[in-house]
């Protein structure tokens, strides 16, 4: 049994996933537990699921929790793919109360920021140099921006306007599924999105993650942009691992 353990929960628009994490290796310890996100995804309903997951593992230490939202000092400021009643809510306080924890033992952060933190700690070392943008393609598009490994939180690059549309509505993995697009057709949209983004932020590297990165060989080679693109190393568990790391280290935002 490893000494350096943590616990992370990744709340998404379709599923809530939690697991014990080995914080030396950046890997899950045993299986993760996934429960469908309740509909509607109100704070109370989601907090019940989070409590079930923590109880399932019998975990009594600090907990890192992600939301698909801008998070400032524990308070959700947006809610793109979850119930709007999260906006303005102190999510950190809600979970701390529901889980019987001190507020300092619950780290709340944006889901893509968590995934990015995991990549910085446990992924390709090349990602720790220069300006690096991690993008997660799922229900929406999440983003995490780093300069030499330091996070600039809450960037929300999934919502830049591309050709008159909110970018994630056209280029998220959900758009591919909902519109029945082939990988090459969807890759064209991702290519257009990344071109607009690279012209705004001039990164040294893009890291692409989210569930669709498991099939990255079908679309990443089709991208034709200035910035190098690599696939996330931690794939779908990056949010859980990053959340657990944030809980262990404490968060400053
Ligand atoms: C939200 C982000 C989130 C991303 C991925 C977007 O719609 O605005 O906060 O990181 O989806 O879940």
From TrEMBL:
The family database entries (Pfam families) matched by this protein are listed as: ROK
Asked whether the UniProt record includes Membrane among its keywords, one would answer: no
UniProt keyword annotations, A-Z:
Kinase, Transferase
Q: Which CDD domains match?
A: ASKHA_NBD_ROK_PPGK
Q: In Gene Ontology terms, what is one molecular function of this protein? A: kinase activity
Specify whether Acetylation is a keyword of the entry: no
Protein family according to the UniProt entry: Belongs to the ROK (NagC/XylR) family.
Could you identify this protein by its name? Transcriptional regulator/sugar kinase
Source organism of this protein record: Saccharomonospora glauca K62
